[in-house]
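Collaborator request log, item 7. Partner lab (contact: R.S.) asked for a structural prediction of Protein kinase domain-containing protein to inform their binding assays.
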Amino acid sequence: MTDESMARIDPNARALALFDEYAEMPHATLSKALASLQSEDAAVCAALMRMLAADEQTHVFFSPLRWFARQDSSGADGVSTDRIWPDGTRLGPWCIDGIIGLGGMGIVYAAHRADGLYERDVALKTIRTDVMSPALQQAFGKERTHLAKLEHPSIVTLHDAGVSDSGQPWLAMQRVHGEAIDRWCDLQRADLRTRVRLLVDVCDAIGYAHAHGVLHQDIKPSNLLVTDAGRVKLLDFGLSAMLTPYGDGGFTRIGVSSAFAAREVFDGAPPSVAIDVHALGVVLYRLLCDRWPRPRRSLLPLSVSCGDVEQAPSALALETTDDVAQARNRRNATALSRALRGDLDAIARRCVQDDPVARYPSVVDLRADLLAWLQRRPVAASDGGWLYRGSRFVRRNAMAVGAAAVLVVATTAGGVSAWRQQERTRLEEENTEMLSRLFAESLGAATLNSLGSGPAESAGLLEDAERRLRSMAGDARPRLLARGLVALAHGYTVRADFVAAERLLLESRRIGENDPMQTATCNAALANLLNKGARLAEAERLASEGLDVLPERDGIDDDLLKIELQFQLARARWLREDAAGALPILDRAIVSARRIGPLAKVKLASLLRQRATIRNFMGHGRDAEQDLREALSYLDDGSPTVLNQVRQTLALLSIAGGDASGGHRLAALALQSSLRVFGPMHAETGRAWLTIAKSWRSGRRDPRRADIALRQAETIFVRRFGADHPMLDEVISLRASLAMENGADEAGVALMRRAVAISTRGYGCCVEGTLRRRHALAQALIASARSRRGPARDAAYSDAADVLAKVLQDGERHGVRVGFAHAARVAPLLFDGDVAEAERQAWMALQAASGAEDEDAGTARADMDEAIEAMLRVRLAQKRHEDAVALLESLRERLPPQRRDPDRHFRWQVLRLEIDMSRGDPVAVRAQRQRLRNIAERYGFESRLQGRIDLVGGRTAHGDGTARDGTGDSVDRSRSITRVP
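Returned to partner:
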């Protein structure tokens, strides 16, 4: 029998074939897929659910024979009793939205309040019907009772409870959006002190529950979620480990996660505080060294041998990879092992002793030892003698001990010098510790909350952090203040409050003016701010000065700072139109970042994205895509800013390469992530709206949605930075292009004037970007002349001619090549009847585009197309139709496939129609009109047919002479990948 026929007959075989696909599904997709499978084949759905539940690694204790029997059989009638509640199911006031997770005995759904009284999202927990038993139902009720009386900020809140019409009980609890504690720490690259502090918070919650008579008994990372704000939430009080007391004082254990369970659990020991302490110890091992205290057991052990002994975290750390160590801010596995040796070893090992009596007697005692380690006080688990206690006293009271030591050391030769060196080292260590504590308690929370919270709330957090920093530093710790101000400025930068960030950085640089490292650090951060604000000359100067003063030392921090300075220097040069000067700097920085390894992967991704932008601009699209794909491989959700920027750049590159669907998916993913992580009004969300607007315009051909997205981006940038910030330059120019394409010429011209004003204020009047904006304004004026008559039309042509003459004059005076303006001058000249001068300008445009093609391929293609089109219109004015046809054919040879760039194909067809009409060939004109209609209908260009060429009436603008302008349909010739800071 074939595998395929076996799968059709055996539900387990088919479920196994489906397992990988379903196990990887997002929760929302899983919910719908299971509901559909259940209606199609209930037996296969039941088998698949059992496999998914087993994948959760829960060991079940109640009625083992019944459990195993149920794994291989369906209900009496051959149909599973499992039921998935489909999306939209109502349970009291709650409406099911999808599955969050499947466990050994329960299903957790996402749900929302649907009775209209108020809005709330919850996690709704149920018991799986195939494991329903009186014991489990009583345990479920016990969990409801316990949760109802536990009110602690780190314990999930119970909102509601009830029973479905089919008799299935449910609990509606606070829904927590967060990561398991071990994964959160790894994503944040949290150091050991941060990890221990989080476990202290867990001990607070567990200790509170113990004080109220509740034993958790299923402590594991997936039940300890950390929110975006860095707060721990304790979940799942009892579905898999709740007790069901009976009158005789006995108990029934429902289940436990075997990897975190103490040995006595499998020998039938009653629930105890010691079991929770053991589980906390295993979690501590996972946080410290990503290892288990003992070799892992099987998933369903009914008896456990006692031959293996727990190993110290420091010993296990030597078996880890350097990636594990670096995720904990240690250079390698050896350095991590040294950091764990001593007190942390003692605390972790005491938690997981085989003998419950040898463990901590309470979670409160464990918490006390963890706090003692954080505060450098003696740890009870170490049980050290007077020398150990003395060393901890010296570390904790280093200032007082150092002062006393001065009296002795100063009496010996060279004692003062030695003491000073010791004192400097001690102060630096204390500064590091104090700053770490401040960041954990205030700065970190302020920075995280600044992403999605309102401006007032996040500003308050940052202001409070600044007050605490200044109080902690006082007058005696200027280095602490200087370093803290840099960290605080980063929080303001994340919040896009660049004014406050610059204020703090300038103060930090003044305080540390005699410290080269501090100066270089501040210069790097300031250069970043100045690049964002388009103050490019200052940014380039500060980045260069930072590289000059940075001392040559052998350390990762020094290398990372040098890379950041190189990055900001390259960005400044790129934004100042010096792509050739930026690329070598980026190449050197990328080599250095690769050499550092995983600790520099986020910065390496930023460097690769910047190089991809420049490479694409220079016409090396394939190399640019390779850079972006590599950058994506280094990133995950722990670096949302860089990840979304890479997605957006790759989206635009994909659209330009003809993959409109793939590009749009990336743009949509970046927008969804930005809204979730940063909130609706953050600058990064504004960038994401801008990118998806380009996708709707160029990829999906939906100008209405593109305009909506651009208005969203504009609202965000104006609210964040004001109405004249350079980040608005591209948004407004794209809005102008859409307006012109839709026939709203006056609105388009007004918007383009605004874009020119913004670019002039932000970048200067005579950089290439601003000169191209002015050139685009002239094109808009020429296009608008078609819908005008009499003096208004004359004024539009005259205004365009003046703008173009000034562009050429300013470009020549400042050494900027502006040959593209010669092509646009052809239209006003033809309107005035000066065909000879128009021909001269067209030749100059062709020569300028030919000279730039090899150096600047990204814009040279568009410039060359415009120059050829200008010469074609000159030949039409001269009635040299064969020459015009030859030029039209040369344009066709330059066209990409139509699906990649339908805009250029549409423009080509318009030119062909004009040639046919100039020749007076009615048959060719009718056929060409139909071709234009076809391409317009296919790609959504119908609005461009009106106002440009009147196909219905059978006439073109030649009838009143205005077709001599030679303009095309698209005003915006800006680069496909944004150049804004």
